[in-house]
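We now fix the convention by which a protein and its fold are recorded. Here is one such record, which you should read through line by line:

>
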Amino acid sequence: MDVELAEERVLVVRDRFSMDHAEGRAWTKRVEAFGTMAKLTGFLTRPRDEEFEVVYRERRLQPFWRIACTALHVYERNRDYRVAVAANVQDVMLEGTLRPVSEGAFAVSGVEHCRDEAEREYLFDAIRGTPDAALSAHLKFDADLSDADGLAAAALAGTVVVPPEAKASMLVRDVLAGSIVRIEADRVLEEKLSLHLIDLYYRPVYAFRYRWQGKEAVVEFDGVTGETRIGGSTFEQHVGKLVDAEFLLNAGVEAAGLFIPGVRLAEIVITRSLAAKRDGGSPRAKS
């Protein structure tokens, strides 16, 4: 089995909103953020604006992984086919061979030449490492190619850059393992897994933590989709911290360290010559 790995990339989805806009949208959710107690209070007398205090605000770049894999299998298999004939046919001469008829059909053998090719794309929350198909909404918008230096500049400018806790190498292994399918073949001519996208995306998120009656709650605003939601988290522990370049991209899987269930290590050949499908795979990425 051949395994091709694309070179990893870092992309930052462009922010479509400002801090002021995000804070204004989040402010409309402040009462809802405190849950039932605030709503019950609101039935009697609506909480005054001055009762709410913004104790923390942040603009952060939150990571997610986009990994795309194409599985290719080219193989041959022997097959026997039963060909139905009329009830009065006793045998059939086919290509110089007399073939007897049994139960209204005769048998013929052949070799099937098969090609199976399937492409799948995976999106993972890079903090929890869990699949999240909803992240596809961010792929509709422009993204800029970046690197560790670009993220460091953003951090120094006051943006919280959240490091990916889910490592690319582990996710790549899981994607490869999930892409292997069992085929019925007598002779395998080609078997290849191509990971043509291994991209670490960063999306802008605004978060505001409010205090009301001694309690605190967070409202988040998505800087790309414009969605506002209550709950969520803040990441002030990463304020001013730079992301380790080696920690960002570590999907360079070596043959000695790769384990794919159901495939013997000796059968795996890994190459890093595959270039990412820049046009088809990420049409909005800008260099």
Notes: The longest strand covers residues 53-84. The chain has one domain: 2-75+114-286. The chain has a mean pLDDT of 85.
